[in-house]
Design goal:
Three copies of one chain form a homotrimer. Chain A is mainly alpha-helical and about 325 residues long. Helix content of chain A is about 70%, strand content about 0%. Chain A folds into two domains: about 160 residues, Ammonium transporter fold; about 160 residues, Ammonium transporter fold (Orthogonal Bundle). Chain A has 17 helices and no strands. The radius of gyration of chain A is 19 Å and the shape is globular. Chains in contact: A-B, A-C, B-C.
């Protein structure tokens, strides 16, 4: 631990000399890459936040699924030729999310655990596939491999009695939402909602978890932490302006995709500037609309949006990046 | 007006010397580009047709939305680097359609107007995004940016009580259509249906509006006007042969996408020839099938197809263009 | 016949000298390409299997549709510039499947036959379109043109009273499958299920038909025949492990896409090796999950998956091929 926190050089040397420690380091980076950070300490903090959140919600399987998914995906990544991407954790983050999502929505039976392992393996193949396709336009796969793989397994759970839903939304035809009573702007509530939104990236609501995630971000990039907080805040206000369900807003369900859009557009794929800030604000507001849209779109088939609103909105805003940003930014 | 109609040179000089007039000219071209024409007079005639049609249906908000959307999108386009596309109105036409579609399906509240502004801004980003992706295969974005942006906002309206549906189809599971009594081939009816179909590109049925649209087309391209009329006619006969709802046929709902396919395949992206004519006929007939298919596909989620049948069918026929057309056409 | 079976050289010369015989040869190759084989004898055996299966199920229209679709598509292919693809039957196989699928799900009225002709023509355009798009990533169109074209016509059948469903699934919201009593592992049953699965590629269950398909494969490629059988077997065990409906497993409904994935990944686009075998096993297992997922996904819109699970899973595994397979494989 000391090596890691107090002495990054020592840790780097340890990784270089010991294959097992290198693997642990890569697995931690895999977890950190869920929010675009290439830093093992960020990954460790994220894992802590996940255990805090999962135990807090009484669903420890989510945390163990996360660990399992990241490990399996990182192992699978060893079979790929691109060792640099492997070392940066880029084959691990989708498995991490597959491992968080499946126990959230399915009963943790042995068949479900087998699906987490299979899903994590496939998430790596999907990562290479989608990254290959998207490099034509110089855009990253984001969390699309996770979403695609998890959607397939969740949809399949309706057809296979070996997989039991524990939290999938019941398939229904969309109906106009009836205005719900309830306010979200009562003092500290917005503050809590904000951190709920950040922790919802890993599919749970947790104030403490959310705070640890932000600390983890700040360890690697202060801008990422700032954009995460501002993204969550702007998403909450946008959803409130559009009159979304106050309960959903408070649980962070309109913020988690927006948080990722804010980090991606604001700090990961652009250097902060006024122009980038404007672009990011439009992107975050649009992500909230896409979140509402995808809730409707998926309601007849009974699966959650996962982080697809973030993926769609960010692709939409990242492909034209070079046509929008000043020339020296390329 | 005289400068525009009587003296194109004078108008071009005026545009070159006055930024404000250049902006108006570009906005008019934006409207004309909905049907692929790069001509401010065509745009002006289209706007007139829109006002005639919108007031005729008692929904003036559609016309004002159109003007607002085109202006906002044209303004947003100023932020893009490609000034030639901007000047041709290629950043404006999707905003124009967003502005027509949202007030057609949503109650025109302040939140809805805010969504028109946001949607028009996003339509420009979507235009650059989709155009960037599609230039890999030398195909244009067509009206896909409009469809994507508008679908998102219409789907989102189910999740947000701030947006109220005024005309969205009720979500239902598809059912085989029961044969409806009614004929469409009673004398002048086909004539009216044809112009209804052309005006449905802007989401309303209007004989006078349709006629003005055709005149607007003819001002820039006689072939475009001819293909629009023949496309509408062929679509009506195809839909009647397949036994579609006579009411929908008469309202032009099977023709508007086919009209755009006919102009695109027949005159915009190809030079008229017998081979092109054959190809266009198959394309138009298939567009009618896709229209029926997408009506079914979207019925559980309660949104209209907009011009997606045209977009899908035209992409399908335009990508292989170079493999089908004689070599000198490339 | 003798020329074909006993003397390939004689047949090849005959094809070269007689345009009509060349066309028949190409049409037969079109049928064989449904399972990736470029061999007229394979195609002839496949057509025999189709007639056996179609008459066995009491739906001869399926067999005649198949013949018609392949012929129309092969004729349409003459209009394309790439004569080498035409000669290999690559413009024919999607039309063959369109011709099999439409009479399976629609009443064989004159309008339906017109749709088979139109669908076969469009399938060729879709083949060129999708192949053009996918060559950016060096991946084949597979049966996507067939799926796309047929889905459009089947979806459209709900909107047009001229087209009557004879076997489309009733649109329903997905529900968790209730465990069905019934075993699939009673002696010879697995054997029958395996061949049912292979014949389901052409949308019917037939032991004899399935056996003839395997013989047809073996005529051109022993590996293809082996992978078809192993793919079907693995799919049946996977579906049983996941507790799918025993009836569907026995009818081969979880195997047909897996059979195609196994042939594609195991023998067509890779040379058999241990690494390829492992990759193919993961691909086949995932195809079964995608089959379950797509059954759920499509249930509200009342259309069958056709071979889309194969297409999706195979694209997913073929795009990263070069990143996974040893360097000399490129």
């Amino acid at each position: 631990m000391n090596a890691k926190t107090g002495n990054q050089f020592g840790w780097a040397q340890l990784c270089a000399s010991n294959v097992f420690i290198e693997f642990i380091d890569t697995t931690l980076r895999g977890c950190a890459q869920v929010m675009f950070q290439n830093n093992p300490l960020t990954g460790l903090l994220f894992f802590i936040a996940i255990f805090v959140g999962a135990y807090g919600e009484g669903s420890p399987a989510v945390a163990y699924g996360c660990v399992l998914g990241t490990i399996v995906a990182t192992l699978t990544g060893l079979a790929m030729r691109d060792r640099k991407s492997w070392r940066a954790g880029l084959y691990g983050y989708n498995g991490c999310l597959v491992g968080a999502a499946l126990p959230t929505f399915l009963v943790a039976t042995p068949v479900a655990w087998a699906c987490i392992v299979l899903g994590s393996i496939v998430s790596v193949i999907a990562t290479v596939c989608i990254a290959d396709i998207l490099k034509t336009w110089k855009v990253a796969a984001l969390t699309a491999p996770f979403v695609f793989t998890t959607w397939m397994i969740l949809l399949a759970s309706y057809a296979f009695t070996g997989l039991h839903s524990s939290g999938l939304p019941t398939p229904t035809l969309p109906q106009q939402l009836i205005s719900e009573p309830g306010t979200i702007f009562g003092g500290g509530n917005v503050f809590v909602s904000m951190f709920n939104g950040i922790s919802q990236v890993f599919l749970f609501s947790s104030l403490v978890g959310g705070i640890i995630f932000v600390i983890g971000l700040a360890v690697e990039s202060l801008w990422a932490a700032i954009f995460a907080l501002l993204g969550a805040l702007l998403a909450i206000f946008t959803a409130a302006f559009l009159d979304a369900s106050p309960h959903s807003i408070h649980a962070g369900l309109y913020a988690f995709s927006a948080v990722l859009t804010a980090i991606a557009l604001g700090s990961t794929f652009n250097q902060p500037s006024w122009r980038v800030l404007t672009y990011t604000i439009v992107g975050v507001i649009f992500t909230v609309l896409v979140q509402g849209a995808m809730n409707t779109l998926l309601s007849p088939i009974g699966i959650p949006t996962l982080t697809m609103p973030f993926v769609l909105a960010s692709w939409l805003f990242l492909v034209p990046n070079k046509d929008v940003m000043p020339a020296h930014r390329q």
